[in-house]
C-alpha cells in the first residue's frame, strides 16, 4: 500500500531510532529485493532494513533527499520513474556500501 511522504519518513525514523544516521544507507528503487539483497548484499534475516512504497517516484525521491540531508549515506541520482520504493538499512561489514 502506497504511503504519503510524512508517514514514510516517520516509519523510517522510528525504525532507526537510536541509530546514527551516518551508519545507515537510503535509496530508491523499483525492485527492492534485487537492490537490497543483491546489489547491497543486505542479509534478509540478520541485518536491519526497512522499505516503504511511496505514492509516486517524486515522493520517493523527496523521502530519500530528506534522509540524505539528515546524514544517511546514499546518492540522489539513482532510480527512475518506476522507483517508488524507498529503502534504508544499517550498514555492516558485509553490506555494500
Structure, described:
The chain has helices at 5-15, 32-39, 57-69, and strands at residues 24-29, 49-53, 85-90. The protein has 97 residues and is α+β, with helices and mostly antiparallel strands. The chain has one domain. It has a three-stranded antiparallel β-sheet, with helices on both faces. Helix 1 (5-15) crosses helix 3 (57-69). The termini are far apart.
Task: Write a short abstract of this structure.
The chain is α+β, with helices and mostly antiparallel strands. The protein is 33% helix and 18% strand.
Write out key terms for the chains shown.
97 residues; alpha+beta; three-stranded antiparallel sheet; 3 helices
Would you tell me the structural class of the helices and strands? alpha+beta
Q: Which descriptor suits the 3D outline?
A: globular
Q: With helices defined by DSSP (H or I, 4 residues minimum), what is the helix count?
A: 3
Strand content: 15-25%
Q: Order of SSEs, N→C?
A: HEHEHE
State the distance separating the first and last CA atoms. 28 Å
**Would you count the extended β strands for me?**
3
What strand line-up does the widest sheet have?
Answer: 1-3-2
Low-confidence stretches: none
| Helix fraction by DSSP (H/I, runs of at least 4) | 25-40%
- Average predicted confidence as pLDDT: 96
* Rg from alpha-carbon coordinates: 12 Å
Number of spatially distinct domains: 1
